[in-house]
Amino acid sequence: MPVIALVGNKGGAGKTTLCINLASGLLRRGSTILLDTDPQRSSLQWRDISDASDLVAVVDAVDDVKAAVSQYQNRCEWMVIDCPPSVHSEQTRQALSCSDIALIPVLPSPLDLWASIHVERTLDWARSVNPGIKALLVVNQLEPRTRLSRLMHDALAEIALPVATTAIVRRVAYRNAMLHGCSVLDRGAEARSAAEEIKNLTDEVVKQL
Description:
This protein is an alpha/beta fold. It has helices spanning 15-27, 42-48, 65-72, 90-97, 110-129, 147-150, 152-156, 172-179, 192-208, and strands at 3-6, 32-36, 57-60, 78-82, 101-106, 134-139.
């Protein structure tokens, strides 16, 4: 059972939104559990506002990440962990110690790039206890027509982590899906472009595992 951790070192990078949509993409491949380890419990709140029975299952794992992974690892084919927005949190460190891959969403901004450097250092620590862990930066909330976004890939080359080919564009569809307690994959034609991004990213992540 592959374990995928969504990790960041700065709030506002769209980590939880990406986490929910990725987990929803994996659910279409097999049974999936999302562990919410962020004390804000945003993934749990998203699940609570929906009465749909076919959404990804979300479990509160704030108190003990490793115990939750052990408890649920034989109950699903995929596990996704929504970590707090800090690489220094105990939850993030536990998640990295038992994950197969860490996805790091990063916004096209200098502050987010600088924050990613701290993630890189934490991953160096994680490999000392979990040598097989992989990592993948995901450009999130991209605005393609801005100069900063065009320079993003050049800037990411300064960070010694691989970058996903699929970038997630800043779209209203992602916010609307969260408000409706679903993923962009459930929103039909109005979220077609967003759904295609999530499908492509899901494919890319699966190929890494």
